[in-house]
Amino acid sequence: MKKTAILMALAFVFLAGCTGKGAQAPSFTADTFPKLDGSTANIPLAQALVKSFLGLDDTQAEDFVAFNTTPRAYENLAKGECDLLLVYEASDETKETLDAMGADFEYFPIGKDALVFIVNENNPVESLTSMQIVDIYTGKITNWNEVGGQDAKIAAFQRDPTSGSQALMKKLVMKDTPMVAAPAEFTPGEMGGLIDRLAEYNNESTAIGYSVFYYASLMYARPGLKFIGVNGVAPSNSTIASGEYPYTNAFYAVLRADEPAGSPARALAEWLRGGEGKLLIERCGYVAGA
Questions:
Q1: Is the pLDDT of residue 23 over 50?
Q2: Model's pTM, two decimal places?
Q3: 244 with 112: CB under 8 angstroms?
C-alpha cells in the first residue's frame, strides 16, 4: 500500500498537462462517470480523465481512481465491479480465467507502449539482439561477456506470470519459447518492485529486467539505471510510434460486449478514440493510436 501511495503521488507530476476536453466530449457527473479500473501504467490517464471531465483536483482524482493491476482489473470487469478498463494486454493465464468466467469483452486500442529492458547504468552493453534476449531468458547465455560486456554472471529478473509486462514478454519476445525458471528473489510481485531490485541488486551492473516504457520512464524512473536498445534501436516515444523499436504493443479501453449503446462507459471509450481523446493521451506522455 505504501508503494501504491508513492506511485499515485508520482503520477500527479504528469496530470497538469493531461487535461482538457473538446466541444463534443460527453458530459458526466460524479455519479454517472464510468467506474474505471486497469493497469498501473494507465493510472495517469485515468486521473487525467476524471480531472478533465469532473473538475477534480489532484487529491480528489487520487481518491476517485482505484486501479487493481492488469489481471484483477480484467476479472473485475467480468464480474461487473467496474465499467471500463484502461489496460494492457492480459496474460494467457488471465485469458483462461476470463474464458472460464464466460467473459465477452470489446477492445478499443487507444495507444501504444513497449516492453523495454533495463540494466545498471554502469553496464557497458548498450544494445542486445532479439535472439540474445531470448537466449538470456532461456539460460543459454549466462555471462555478460557473451554479449560484449564484463565477465560477470547475468542476473535475469522476471515478472510474475499474470502481470501485463510478463504477458508482453511472452508474446513479443519469447513467443513459443519457454523461459527458464527464475529464483523467487528474481521475480518481484509488484511492477515497481522489479525496478527497485534492479537498482539495488548488489550495487553492480549484472542485473537485467523488463517493464513497459511509460511506467519505467515517467512513473517509476530510478537513478542508476538505463534502457538497453534492441537490435540497435533505443526505446523512445518516436521509435515506439514508428514501430522501429521492435517490442511495441497496444493498450486498450475495454468494455463488456453487452455494454449498451450510448452508455457512459461506451461514450468515454469512443471519445478516447477520437481526436480530443488522442490529444489527452499524448499530453499525458503516451503514444496515442495503435
A1: no
A2: 0.88
A3: no
